[in-house]
Amino acid sequence: MILDVSFPSPKLLFLRRMSHKKVRVRFAPSPTGGLHLGGVRTVLFNYLFARHHGGEFVLRIEDTDQTRYVPGAEEYIIECLRWCGLDADEGPHKGGPYGPYRQSERKALYRQYAEQLVASGHAYYAFDTPEELEAMRELEKSRGNHSPQYNQRIRRTMHNSLTLEAAEVKALLDKGTPHVIRIKMPEHAEVRFTDMIRGEVSFQTDIVDDKVLLKADGMPTYHLAVVVDDYLMKITHAFRGEEWLPSAPVHILLWKYLGWESSMPEWAHLPLILKPDGNGKLSKRDGDRLGFPVYAMNWLDPKTNELTQGFRERGFLPEAFVNMLAMLGWNDGSGQELFSLDELVQKFSIERVHKGGAKFDYEKAKWFNHQYIVKKDDAALATLFQPVLEEKGLHPDPAYTARIAGLVKERCHFVNEIWDHGFFFFTRPEKYDTDAVKPKWTAEKQAFFETWTAALNDLEDFTFHTLEEHFKQLAVEKNIKPGELQLPFRIMLCGGKFGPPVFVIAETLGKKETLERIKLGLAAIQA
Ligand code: GLU
After folding, report:
1. Strand pairing partners for 180?
2. CATH architecture assigned to 434-526
């Protein structure tokens, strides 16, 4: 018989919508390593939803699995949120009315709920030793069951409070025998719920195993802790990655069994971020293989000392990174792609998040960064570029750097590319592309540049307009096509066939430097 525990009922949904509860959402990462861009997108959708509805955004550190705990990972997550401008309102770094916000610090409060579930018959004590569990797995495998699970069939054969006499259970507990508490999954039932993104979702309970809720060391597992904390922290909407969907029936049953049905958050399982070819979830390894970052910021694995580059260190501006992430799975329906964070807050709606996975496209990510670099104020770009100059031992006037940033930013995808496109504004050419000039060099051209040098010396108005006008006029007088002289002039100023308009370069370098470079350039051509 199919027992339908469909949840929440339409009536409940209606009542909940009418209750106008303050929106509270949470990002609940486990501090196990670098923060994947999918994780940052979960942060972003939480943040946007909370801000859009005038609600609150909580950061909760889910560190109950001590074996996976990595030192430094929590601080790293907090720094990622700060860098993206998506800080939480409550969390371990700033406290709040529902703390502590680290599950390891809440350890003492979970057992009572696990015991409550045992008392109501929805969970049970399991005393199986690691050896017994291993023996069970071996036996099952020898019978052709390749992924043995502690489920409705197996639990009848194991060492637990469902198979042992009550007195024996009591004796074991009194003796302090190590044990876990497992959920008792109902048989032949169907769990249904309405996901904000996927609509109605249903699961057969027969294929879900009896998950451990409380471990032998008294720590809750993720499954128990996430439900208890979402309840105690009054979370109204839970956004998380699609990979958590298979756990949803366990969580929904726990909400029901603990008697908290009417407080259960609405769920939204966010679509995966896919590899560029669309084949499966984007992993850090894909980034390593294809040469792009997958983590938000540099991550140094304390165990292996392996450094993984992040979007921040690759040169992404946080506003571009955030905008790009918003578009991985959401749009406003208008075709617009560039949104400020304020605009995103205004326009974000969960109804417009797609069900299907979103392919990650690194070229598109660079395009977003380019757009934000072009939009960014020149002085701000100069500040960001400053460390690159300092590393090279250069200390130009910030106003000059800002001017260069403004001249070359149209060509840059990253801030450090200001150097690639404008290094000659900061240092004199070390080599000259004389091959481009020498074959057509003539005594007339040489004479032109000598006269031009003298003319420049007397020029008061050293602006590109005037420079260009004089240059062309002199060329006409000397009977040489100005086009044939501009390339040598460019090579004298910057060493090669690149850079902004040549008279703009001259104006920016200023008279003294331009004259010096013509002199050095002429010498190089003649050498
Ligand atoms: N601790 C889980 C994680 O690491 C959170 C899943 C959830 O949000 O329920 O992603």
Report:
1. 126
2. Orthogonal Bundle (1.10)
Q: How far apart are CA 106 and CA 333, in angstroms?
A: 43
Q: Which atom of ligand 1 is nearest to the CA of 239?
A: 8
- C-alpha 29: how far from chain center: 13
Express each pLDDT in 345-354 by its tens digit: 999 999 999 9
Query: Has residue 389 got a pLDDT over 70?
Result: yes
- Give 112-129 pLDDT, tens digit per residue: 999 999 999 999 999 999
Tell me the CA–centroid distance for residue 441 and ligand 1, in Å.
69
In single-letter form, the type of residue at position 464 comes to F
Architecture of domain 284-373: Orthogonal Bundle (1.10)
Do 364 and 382 touch, CB atoms closer than 8 A?
A: no
The dihedrals phi and psi of 70, each to the nearest 5 degrees, come to -125, 120
Which architecture, in CATH terms, is 2-90+226-274? 3-Layer(aba) Sandwich (3.40)
Annotate 35-89 with three-state secondary structure. Answer: CEHHHHHHHHHHHHHHHHCCCEEEECECCCCHHHCCCCHHHHHHHHHHHHCCCCC
Whether 284 is catalytic is yes
d(CA 43, CA 239): 9
Residue 27: phi and psi, rounded to 5, are: -110, 130
Strands 358-359 and 199-204: unpaired
- For residue 100, whether the previous peptide bond is cis, meaning omega lies within 30 degrees of 0, is yes
Which is catalytic among the residues 284, 438, 478, 511? Answer: 284
Tokens coding 143: 């019978």
Atom of ligand 1 nearest to the CA of 27: 8
